[in-house]
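Hi there, hope your week has been kind to you so far. Do you reckon you could talk me through the fold, stretch by stretch? Thanks so much in advance, here it is.
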Amino acid sequence: MVNFSTIYPATYCGTNLIADLKFPSRFDTQEWRLQYDNDDAFLHDHFFDNFNFKDERILHFPYLFPSIFTYFKFYNYGTEEGYKNFIDLLFKKEASLKVQAAISDFLIQLFASQNQASLVQYLLSKSEVCTDDNPNSLSGDISKVMPGNLAHNVILKDINNKKQSLAELVKSKKITALIFYSPSCPHCIDFFKELFPIYSANKDKLGIYTISTADETAIKDFNKTNGYNWINTTYKPTKEYNPYTDYVVLSTPTIVLIDSNMKIVSRFTNLETIKELLNK
């Protein structure tokens, strides 16, 4: 690999991938040699120095998220403060919005599965993940809306003022994506653009039920302009009923995949997971 980077220095492998796979050493500079007396302490602070989070191609290589696990296992201290230091470390680096969103989704899923709401909140305060104006969403029990649990039914009016039942849609589809979003969220906009062709080719198997707290006019304009003809509902927070609390919506988009038996099969999912489930 070293020879490859020498022969093809302008390629992604030569300029990015090789550097990412080569960890820095505390002996690289005189300052580091004086500051650190062991490798663990050094890599706690400098593990990701060579990772180029500006380049979105980093998401197409399988070592990114295993590297994060490696960091957690060997160089993070395993305490809440240690995880917060890791979040600070990641988001001090300039990252593209797409890379930051992918890492944020990964960390939110990890922390949420461990019921570490304080870490989820801390991550959201640091990253550029979009959040809806729904302060009650963290009051729910996220363990009850993780994969393996039965989904809560949702009944809301769509942009044509017609009541839509999530449970009714779920019964008729192999997989249904319940999506909490905002029409002004750049991550949502990008996700919907990539989701729509998949939906159009699989309408018999894939249901889409979207919920947004945005202004109703903005919701209508967004979906009609883009031709999104799936179920688009609107919601204004009330004390009596709040699907954002039921599903502990932490950021947008939040995507919950539900099978025909109303069982949650995936949460914090991506397009690849949707494709895999449709093709099973």
About this structure: The two ends are 37 Å apart (CA to CA). Strands lie at 155-157, 163-165, 175-180, 206-212, 231-234, 254-259, 264-267. Residues 2-126 form one domain.
